[in-house]
Amino acid sequence: MATLTLSSLDKKYGGFHAVKGIDLDVADGEFVALVGPSGCGKSTTLRMIAGLEDISGGQLRIGDRVVNDLPPRDRNISMVFQSYALFPHMTVAENMGFSLKIAGRDAGTIDTAVKEAARILEIEPLLERRPAQLSGGQRQRVAMGRAIVRDPDVFLFDEPLSNLDAKLRGQMRTEIKRLHARLGSTVVYVTHDQIEAMTLADRIVIMRGGVIEQVGTPDEVFNRPASRFVASFIGSPPMNMAEAVVTAGRALRLEDGTELPLPTAFHVAEGRRVVLGLRPDDIYPEGHGIHSESGHAVESRELPVMLSEPLGNETLLFTELGGQSWTARMLNPRSVKRGELLRFHLDLSRAHLFDAETGLTLR
Ligand code: ATP
């Protein structure tokens, strides 16, 4: 069974604590994405799993084996790097078969494995080329092919698509998803791209400063973020955040004194300092929303459009309320002039509330 278990896994570089005793169980066949801002420890965690980095404390298990002190080649994992790390002097076929050759497999076995991987990735016509004769996307496929031929228990991906342009990144994302569906292998995938994480992963692990902030399905981390940090990290454009104080009349008083009703679902004491979070999807000009407008705690305000960004099937509108800027999403767009006043709906039934001090979600 290709399960992966991290128990109090810890990494110190000299005096610097990069990964602070994290716990994570990855099920057999599960696709888990590690996300977080630069320096949060996601690559270090992946490199500890790969055996490329010593573990300072805790335990790492693959299946029922503790692998803390096992060299990378004995862990039965394959890693795909951002840089592809192909050997320039070898052909595609030689690159793909290299690890099997090192492992002492016979030529026939290697040939079969390479051809099978090439067929899956649709790179059969490229087998005799060298890396310099390939496009970025083709190189990435070869790097994946090299990982596949080893038939590993666990695939590790370290930002594999970040060197590709946006269009190719989208295509390769679909490719990786298809591959995972086909091979059913356990995957740990590091990315700083939350869209990649949302579209690919069964579960997302959000890291910050060497600790795990939240682990959840894409739906959970998007709709039920555990903290302000997770809420701002997941979702594009990011969630609007406004500092507020809860008043005696169960309202949220924003910075400039503007009041919005406190949604009934929240039980928060008067005087408490909070942060109101509302996704751009939940602020929209009347008649142009993503959600149905009936039966919600919709607050309606006439607000100015400061800026609009047409994106084809939708337009992002930037407006002002409570002394700050808010991003709104307008579906079925029409042209909007700068300074135009529109009736915006704020669907407060979908609002999030965070403690202003701790950043933790309030319910
Ligand atoms: P990025 O998205 O920028 O790659 P990351 O989340 O993958 O970031 P890591 O590479 O895991 O971050 O690094 C975590 C922290 O550990 C960073 O603050 C980094 O500077 C530090 N670090 C990484 N490698 C070393 C090292 N060899 N020696 C000292 N500090 C290191």
Overview of the molecule:
It comes from Alloyangia mangrovi. The chain is an alpha+beta fold and 363 residues long. Helix 2 packs parallel to helix 4. The two termini are 38 Å apart. It has helices spanning 42-50, 92-102, 107-121, 136-149, 166-183, 194-200, 218-223, 228-233, and strands at residues 4-13, 16-26, 31-35, 57-62, 65-66, 77-80, 154-158, 186-190, 203-208, 211-216, 240-246, 251-254, 259-261, 273-278, 283-285, 298-310, 314-321, 324-331, 341-347, 352-355, 361-362. The strands form 4 sheets. Strands 6-7-8-3-9-10 form a 6-stranded mixed beta sheet, with helices on both faces. Helix content is 24%, strand content 34%. The longest helix has 18 residues, at 166-183. Bound molecules: adenosine-5'-triphosphate. The site of adenosine-5'-triphosphate has 12 residues, from strand 2 and helix 1.
Distance between the termini: 38 Å
At the first level of CATH, the class of the largest domain is Alpha Beta
Query: What's the CATH architecture name of the largest domain?
Result: 3-Layer(aba) Sandwich
Major sheet strand order: 6-7-8-3-9-10
Give the tally of β-strands. Answer: 21
- Summed up, the domain count is 2
Bound molecules: adenosine-5'-triphosphate
Q: SSE order, as H and E?
A: EEEHEEEHHHEHEHEEHHEEEEEEEEEEE
Percent helix among the residues?
10-25%
CATH topology of the largest domain: Rossmann fold
Largest sheet descriptor: 6 strands, mixed
| Radius of gyration from CA coordinates | 24 Å
Mean pLDDT: 92
Structural class: alpha+beta
Question: Spans with pLDDT under 50 lasting ≥5 residues?
Answer: none
